[in-house]
Each structure stands twice: as structure tokens, then as C-alpha cells.
Design brief:
By secondary structure, the protein is an alpha/beta fold. 29% of the residues lie in helices and 22% in strands. The protein has helices at residues 19-30, 46-49, 81-94, 178-187, 210-227, 233-244, 254-260, 346-377; strands spanning 6-9, 12-15, 35-39, 65-66, 69-70, 99-101, 107-111, 114-119, 122-126, 128-132, 136-139, 153-156, 171-174, 193-196, 263-265, 268-272, 275-278, 288-291, 295-297, 316-317, 320-321, 327-330. Strands 6-3-2-10-22 form a 5-stranded parallel β-sheet, covered by helices on one side. Strands 12-18-13-14-15 form a 5-stranded parallel β-sheet, covered by helices on one side. A 4-stranded mixed β-sheet has the order 1-9-8-7, with no helix packed on it. Helix 1 packs across helix 8 (346-377). It is globular and about 65 Å long. It starts with 5 loop residues before the first strand and ends with a helix. The mean pLDDT is 90.
Length: 378
């Protein structure tokens, strides 16, 4: 049975209504360009609200300032995930950004000179599409996860909220990045906790200290935003490595985990008798497993040949898709700088992409005007 689509035309579509999408919308509106933001969540900011309850930003509130609106709150505080979500919602309301919530995009393809965005029974044609979301969207777990005993509670960090989701007994946190460290600290107070894996280093100072808040965080921010970029030799050199490896631990330090009672164990490599098996041959007898194993690319809905490499990574030049003129990205990890996917760096990338969109629309308008004049003169 053929599906009937309700078709609309909008010059520019922004897919994703999180921080990247909203800041992109701000710059589009500032230039007077017609656009619409599509977001799968029911409410602006829900991508943050749905994360674990104890999550806080790694940088002080003084840096949570999108263009045109400062964050309202103590400048030296560390905003919670709900405060960030509310800030995003207030931002969308202040600038009356056209966000259509509850719209999940099923497909993006090209039809002639226009892009076609399909979402449910709605089809939107556009001259430009800006995909405003991070590289990784789909929670990743190892292939042997389904071999664990069915009585074991399994939760990915994407769905984890608080220890009430777990059953009595031990917890194995798989993954030693920032998510794994934060969540291990969250559950160790109520459950015997093991953490598997090796962290990729840690920042050697306490970010909550006075000197860190007023000096060191500012220095790290400067390096991540201005030094480690595609515009510097060192930035171009380290970018491939930073794209592959996990970020160093920021708030929680390895000694914090030990002091809290978290038992460090080697990497999980499989399952034995229904229980997690480690690289050293040990079997961990736990009743819960929290997978802090990251994400994989979630762009399979983009049906544009040549847009991605063999690993599913976007082929782009500072957000401009190489294979499809008119397709742009904002919010990718190290899109231009180490800060590109953060609340600190996303605006700069968004502004540059919107500038290119504006020039493209201006050129198209000039071409159309010349065509009309030629027809009139004939």
C-alpha cells in the first residue's frame, strides 16, 4: 500500500533541536533566513533531561552563554542537567525559534536540486538541510551482552537515571570514561560496585577549586577552543587521535573511585556461565550491568551516496558536506575545534555554517533573477 505524504517547502531545515540546533536557529533568524527546526523529543531540552539525575556540567555557569542570552544563575556554579535543559527551553522561547517537537526524521534524500525530508506522513522539500547533532546517537553494547543471564539487569548509560533502576546486589560498570566514572560514584553508595576498563588519563586538578574555576578551567577552555583547531598545526596533528579515543576524566579522579569503594577490574571480554568474564579470566558475579560503552553513528537515515566514509563518519569540511552541496552539519566532535561539540564551541561552528547558507541562497536568488530577466528579454 502506497503511503500518502503531505508535502511542504521550507528553504532551510534544521534537524535536531538541542544546543546545536537552537544556536543554528538563532544565527538563521538573525540573518532573516526562513527555516524550521525538527526535533524528535517532546520538549526542548529533553536530550539533557533524560540523562542521569546527578549529571552536572564540567565547566562553570559563566561559560554557559549562547549568543544573545546569558545563563541566569550563580556564575561559579556547576549547572545540573535539568538547569541546562531549562536554559535551552528559555532560549528557544526568547528568540521564538520555530521548533517542531515530536518529529522524528525517517529519511533524508536528494530529489533533483532539492532535499527531501520525510518524517512520518510529512514530507518537506528544502534547499538546505543542517543536521545539528553529534556524531554518535545510537547506544552501543558489545555483541555478547545478550549472552548474560536473563536475571541480570542491563542498562546503558543512555537510559540510566539513578540507582532505583537496579536490583539488590553487585553492579558492574563497563567503561572507564567520564560517564562510567560518574555513574560508578552514583551507585557505589547503595550497591557493591566494580568498574571495568582503563581510563584514558585524567585532568590533574580539582575543577571545583578556586584556582581551577577562575584560572585553570579558563586555560583549558582557551586551548580547546583556540589552540586545538583545524587552523593550527598542533590541532590538525592531534585531531585523528582525539576522534578515536575517549576524553580524560574531568571531575572524578581514579583515586576518588578507590576511596569510594569502587573495585577496579580489567576489561570485559565475554560471558562465562551467564556472568561477565574479564580479560584476566576472572568472572564477576553481579546482578546488574551498566554499559558505559559509548555510541555508534546514527545517520543511517541520510540516504545520500558518498556522504560518509567506510566507518560511518561524515565526510565534511568544517561542517560542509563534501558529497552534497546544501547539506551541513553542526555539533560534530572536533568539527573545527576540540570544543565543537560542547556548549562552549558550538555557536562558532553554527555561525560559520549559516554564513555559507546565506551566501548560497543569495547566489541562487541572483541566478533566478538573471533567468527571469533573460526570459523577459526574449
Amino acid at each position: 500500500m502506497n503511503k500518502t505524504f503531505e508535502t511542504h517547502y521550507i528553504p532551510t531545515i534544521v534537524i535536531g533541536g538541542g544546543q546545536a540546533g537552537l544556536v543554528t536557529g538563532y544565527h538563521l533568524k538573525k540573518r532573516g533566513l526562513p527555516f524550521l527546526i525538527l526535533d524528535a523529543h517532546e520538549r526542548v531540552g529533553d536530550a539533557w533531561r533524560r540523562r542521569w539525575d546527578s549529571l552536572r556540567l564540567f565547566t562553570p555557569a559563566r561559560y554557559l552563554n549562547f549568543p544573545g542570552m546569558r545563563y541566569r544563575g550563580p556564575r561559579t556554579s556547576w549547572p545540573t542537567k535539568d538547569q541546562i535543559a531549562d536554559y535551552l527551553e528559555s532560549y528557544a522561547k526568547k528568540f521564538q525559534l520555530p521548533v517542531r517537537n515530536g518529529v522524528k526524521v525517517d529519511e533524508l534524500r536528494k530529489d533533483g536540486n532539492r532535499f527531501v525530508v520525510k518524517a512520518g506522513n510529512t514530507q518537506i522539500e528544502a534547499d538546505n538541510v543542517i543536521v545539528a547533532m553529534a556524531n554518535y546517537q545510537v547506544p552501543r553494547t558489545p555483541s555478547f551482552a545478550n549472552e548474560l543471564d536473563r536475571s541480570i539487569v542491563q542498562v546503558h548509560s543512555h537510559e540510566y537515571k539513578n540507582p532505583s533502576q537496579l536490583q539488590p546486589g553487585g553492579v558492574l560498570v563497563v567503561g572507564a570514561g567520564n560517564s562510567g566514572a560518574d555513574i560508578a560514584m552514583d551507585v557505589v553508595g547503595s550497591h557493591p560496585t566494580w568498574m571495568s576498563g582503563k581510563e584514558s588519563g585524567h585532568i590533574p586538578f580539582r575543577i571545583e577549586s578556586f584556582i581551577a574555576r577562575h584560572l585553570l578551567v579558563r586555560l583549558v577552555r582557551f586551548v580547546g577552543h583556540h589552540v586545538l583547531t583545524l587552523g593550527t598545526p598542533i590541532g590538525r596533528k592531534v585531531r585523528p587521535k582525539l576522534l578515536r579515543q575517549a576524553s580524560p576524566l574531568v571531575r572524578v579522579k581514579p583515586q576518588d573511585l578507590i576511596d569510594a569503594g569502587v573495585k577496579r577490574v580489567s576489561r570485559v571480554t565475554g560471558v562465562r556461565n551467564g556472568l561477565p568474564s574479564l580479560s584476566d579470566g576472572t568472572v564477576v558475579d553481579v546482578r546488574n550491568v551498566i554499559w558505559c560503552t559509548g555510541y555508534r553513528p546514527g545517520f543511517s537515515w541520510i540516504q545520500l551516496p558518498g556522504a560518509f566514509d567506510e566507518d560511518g563518519r561524515v565526510k565534511h569540511d568544517r561542517g560542509m558536506a563534501n558529497a552534497a552541496p546544501g547539506l551541513y552539519f553542526v555539533g560534530l566532535h572536533f568539527q573545527y575545534a576540540m570544543s565543537s561539540a560542547t556548549v562552549i564551541g558550538v555557536s562558532r561552528d553554527a555561525e560559520r555554517v549559516v554564513k555559507v547558507v546565506a551566501q548560497r541562497m543569495k547566489n541562487r536568488g541572483s541566478e533566478a533573477q538573471k533567468f527571469i530577466q533573460a526570459v523577459q528579454a526574449a
